[in-house]
Amino acid sequence: MMSLAARCGAFSPYLQGTKHAVKGVVFPGAVKDAVPAAVNTLYSTSPGGIRLAHTDIKVPDFSDYRRPEVQDPNKSSQESSEARRAFSYLVTGATTVVGVYAAKTVVTQFVSSMSASADVLALSKIEIKLGDIPEGKNMTFKWRGKPLFVRHRTEKEIATEAAVNMAELRDPQHDKDRVVNPSWVIVLGVCTHLGCVPIANAGDFGGYYCPCHGSHYDASGRIRKGPAPLNLEVPYYEFPDEETVVVG
Ligand code: FES
Fold this sequence. Notes:
It catalyses: a quinol + 2 Fe(III)-[cytochrome c](out) = a quinone + 2 Fe(II)-[cytochrome c](out) + 2 H(+)(out). It is a single-pass membrane protein. It is an enzyme of class 7 (translocase). GO terms for molecular function: 2 iron, 2 sulfur cluster binding; metal ion binding; quinol-cytochrome-c reductase activity. This protein is an alpha+beta fold and 248 residues long. It has a domain at 126-247: Rieske Iron-sulfur Protein. It has 7 helices and 12 strands. The protein has helices at 2-8, 12-25, 30-34, 37-43, 81-114, 118-123, 155-162, and strands at 44-46, 49-50, 126-129, 138-143, 146-152, 184-188, 199-200, 208-210, 215-217, 223-225, 237-241, 244-247. A 4-stranded antiparallel beta sheet has the order 7-8-9-10, with no helix packed on it. Strands 3-12-11 form a 3-stranded antiparallel beta sheet, with no helix packed on it. A hairpin with a 5-residue loop joins strand 9 and strand 10 (223-225). It binds FE2/S2 (inorganic) cluster (FES).
């Protein structure tokens, strides 16, 4: 096994040298005459052979890879401890920083791979030009696969909805809490009963009417009559300018 490792490894030339040196010296008979008696006594392990110090073996020189402060074999290791410690801290710190950065990159890429792509994000918002909707009219848009009602209210509708007694409401919510600009009501066109699409400008309260089971909503999208339990949902929206609304 040792022989196999030596033949395959980087130290093969040196181990080969050791083998030959030992072979040549441990030759019975002739060795004893060639080696001084003192040496023979000192290294002899058996009557027929001796062991040498193998001083002829070439030891690889790693000086180019060793730091200057540890190259002198006569110097105490205590003297170089500060420098070695600093080097260890430097390597540890650098490895940690690189490791943390790599981990952060991997996690960021993994998480961002699960987020919506740019085309999906673009579909998640809808920009509507308000100038196209005359006062008193409701327009329906498709947003995230659902109907979206955008209603341009008249002054009369605004005043009527603002004056509604909250005690009369099934799902109490003041009109001002459902709109950003009182002139515009923006709600999802999905009945809160079983999900039908209500009809605009219809019903007993002039807002929306769901013909499926007869739910009546007012011009603020609040449920006023019928089986629906909740007001029409108000999505998030904002007005970048007076003529535009962005929903989503
Ligand atoms: S789904 Fe609208 S009233 Fe039933």
